[in-house]
Write a structure and sequence with these properties.
mainly alpha
Length: 118
């Protein structure tokens, strides 16, 4: 039997949204940025990536997620459709990262490809 450590991590859309706004959450509501953690772990020789998840999300799915989280008491900002001030720019940038997750996805993809070619 192989000695394998399994670390479950929530990389759901709601988990990624909450991890993007830690300063807006109460201590008991805070969640770690698991996708960033997994992206960093994927760069190590010990990592074994079994399957890459689909981590992109359409805007309407993000807006539904935000509405549901706000209804449950999470004080996260509404997705700014129109940019009015600097806070809107920051919020939009964070949400764009959540729905695209390009940097972490590319890290996972490149690591998986390098593992397959060795």
């Amino acid at each position: 039997m192989a000695d394998v450590d399994v670390i479950p991590c929530d990389i759901s859309l709601s988990g990624r949204v909450l991890a993007s706004f830690p300063e807006k959450l109460k201590t008991r509501q805070a969640v770690p940025d698991n996708l960033a953690y997994l992206g960093a772990m994927a760069k190590t020789p010990e990592a074994a990536i079994v399957k890459l998840p689909n981590i992109s999300a359409p805007l309407n799915q993000l807006e539904d997620c935000i509405r549901e989280l706000r209804d449950k008491g999470y004080d996260i900002p509404i997705f700014p459709k129109e940019i009015v001030d600097e806070e809107d720019i920051i919020d939009r940038s964070r949400y764009n990262k959540v729905i695209q997750q390009k940097d972490n996805f590319e890290t996972l993809w490149n690591c998986q490809n390098s593992l397959l070619t060795t």
